[in-house]
Amino acid sequence: EALRGADYILLVVDSSARGLRGLRALASLARESLGHRVGAALVGEGVHSAEIETFCRERGLPMLARLANVEALRAAWTQGAPLTATAPDLSAVFTALAERLAEEAA
To answer: What pTM was estimated for this model as a whole?
Structure first.
């Protein structure tokens, strides 16, 4: 129900088998059932990263961001700190993501 009124859906997926299964299910729901535009952001570099990238490429889902610095994300999250304060290198990633989302949603 939460997806119905969305202009654009960003699916944030971790690089695990569970993340890949979730991406498949939600991408199908969002695009095919609801007709929404969808993009993805990959968190981490894992065994299933290549499969996730392939799935997105084959389905025409733009990969809008790659967040490889998972430890910095976890540290910021546990401290309740802004992500960019704990890991300044992520600032550029989030700025680029915001720009891509604006382009995709236009």
So the answer is: 0.82
